[in-house]
Amino acid sequence: MAIKYLKIFWLFFRINYLRAMEYRLNFFTAFLPAFFYSVGYLVFMGAILSRVPSVSGWDLDKMLLLFAVSQFVHYTQWIFYRVSLERFSESIRDGSFDSIAKLPINPRFVSSFRVQSPSAIIPFQFSVALFFYSIRNISIGPLDTILFLILLFCGFFIYYNISFALISLAFFIVDADDLLWFADDITRFGSYPLEIYPAAAQFILTFVIPVMLLVYVPTTALMGMVNWTMVIATMVMTVVTWLVSQKIWQLGLKHYSSASS
Amino acid sequence: MRKYWLYFAGAFQIAFSYRASLVIRMIRDFLMVLFFITLWRALFAGKETIAGFTFSGMVSYYILAKAVDQLYTFDPGNVIERHVRSGDLSNFLAKPINYMIYLASHIFGRRLARTILTIIASIVIIIVFPSFVGYPAGIFETTAFFILIALAWLLVFAFSYLIGMISFWTTEISNIRQGFELLILILGGLWVPLNVLPDQISQILNYLPFKYLYYFPIQVYLGKVPVDKVFLGLITELCWILGLLFIAKYLWQRGLKRFGAYGN
Question: How large is the ipTM?
Fold first, then answer.
């Protein structure tokens, strides 16, 4: 079953890659927004940190690492599922979701992965370069790396679940795509050190809207600053967000069929 | 002018019909303001001033920049790209209208709905964070600020129009467009006042037109620019707008020849 879905995913990806290559210049200039955003961040943070020693104990390299990991997470969603989710919202509006629901494939899978954005691979590579640049002065052990990768994967999954849960609200409200941009803004909170927030906000950003688990927790694990409560929270939230997104999706499907019948 | 008024009114009505979208956008901006206040609080820990700004001064700057940002839009580039790619531009060329004025009326109408919400949001911010709100230095500064902002709207329009025209030469330009839009906003001082940046960078930026978007008008509003420099700034900004619109007109003619060559 899993292989069937991997094959379908690969097929979707190839189709979308060919489509993107119709506009080659646009494909290869995909790094521009990421480049300007990163340079802007570097100049901004560099200018500030030349005047203050650190941000709640985080120096420029560590801040840059946090930023690079947040860019990873951001572009991963664009590569894999972001455009699909926006199209899903459109398909509910124009009724074309009917044809997706009829396919002999899991409709959640099709709605999540039928349109990828292969050009996002280019800014993704840029964030990888930024990542390696930022860790040049940080000593990292193999166990830290493994834990980082596991937590990062959980972070990707939590982000996907949150995005999917929000876009599933398209079954109930008209303009759910705005909520995805809303989620993007909220996740920006997670790309800065937890220590900058007041205690109440720290709790909310970890356990209620778990954006600190996407970037901050994997990054601190990589730097050997493991907080096991946070690690366990990440594992639990991976499952909880999946269950919540699945529940909203199923409720939405019921609502949709009753609306069209 | 009546036809352009109709384009303006139509765009305003359509934009205002997406009220939920506008409200979500407003909440997003409000959250960003909260986020920046938190970030600056951490950055100012143990420091009285950074580059001459106190904590509340920096937050005031950001709130003002964010409010001004609501008025600007890079939609003209987006619309031109869409019209060129779809071939819809031919329909507009066949009509007895000036495309540039049409676009300005349409875009301004669309943006006005957001502007109204910005005014409401600003009132909310004044009530919630009275100590963070930067108040105008005087009547002259306030008047100059609004004139500078109106001109900056035209400046953004000219930039966006120029970027949009790249689509005559290469049809899909979304990444180029987004990249340059982001660059213009950063160099204009949306994220941080330009004098916080390293000296060499802020000196270079002083000669470029981007500072007229956020940094210069806000400094004028806060009374940090002498009167003679305000007038000089106004004239320089006007020259930039005229220069860019002149280039836009020239490139438009060149672009149209290319558009015609597609057979559209």
Answer: 0.76
CB A155 within 8 A of CB A238: no
- A186 burial (CB, 10 Å; 0-12 / 13-18 / 19+) is middle
CB B162 within 8 A of CB B251: yes
Show the tokens assigned to A165. Answer: 């849960």
Residue A260 in contact with residue A179, Cβ under 8 Å?
no
Which tokens go with A236?
């639990």
In Å, what is the CA distance from A18 to each residue of A6, A24, A29, A89, A122? 18, 10, 16, 24, 15
Tokens read off for A211: 């954006």
Instruction: Please determine, for residue B254, whether its predicted confidence score (pLDDT) is greater than 80.
Output: yes
- Which residues are A58's β-sheet partners? A55
* Residues 6+ away with beta carbon under 8 Å from B99: B89, B92, B93, B252
CA B48/CA B125 separation, integer angstroms: 24
- Exposed/middle/buried for residue B10 (C-beta within 10 Å: 0-12, 13-18, 19+): middle
B39 contacts in chain A (CB < 8 Å): 55, 192, 196
Residues A20-56: tens digit of each pLDDT: 887 777 777 777 888 888 888 888 888 888 777 778 7
List CB contacts (< 8 A) between A33 and chain B.
175, 178-179, 182
